[in-house]
C-alpha cells in the first residue's frame, strides 16, 4: 500500500521510497521517511492534496503526489 492511500489514524511501517526526483527523495529521507520507520495519517486536507503525517514522533505535511512514492509494508 502507498502512503497516499493510508486511512486516517492507521499506523504503518515504511517499506521503501522511490521518488523519481532525486532531490525530493533526499528531502523525504531527511524528514524521517526512512524504511522501517512508522507513519500515521493524522489529517487529509480538503480535496486530498496535502496530508499531515506523523513520522516517528514528528508531524510532517506532505503532498499526496509525493506520498504516492512511499511504499508501506502490508
From TrEMBL:
Keyword match Zinc: no
Keywords, in A-Z order: Iron
UniProt-listed Gene3D superfamilies: 2.30.30.90
Name the UniProt record assigns to this protein: Ferrous iron transporter FeoA-like domain-containing protein
Organism: Marinomonas pontica
Domain Ferrous iron transporter FeoA-like: residue ranges: 1-74
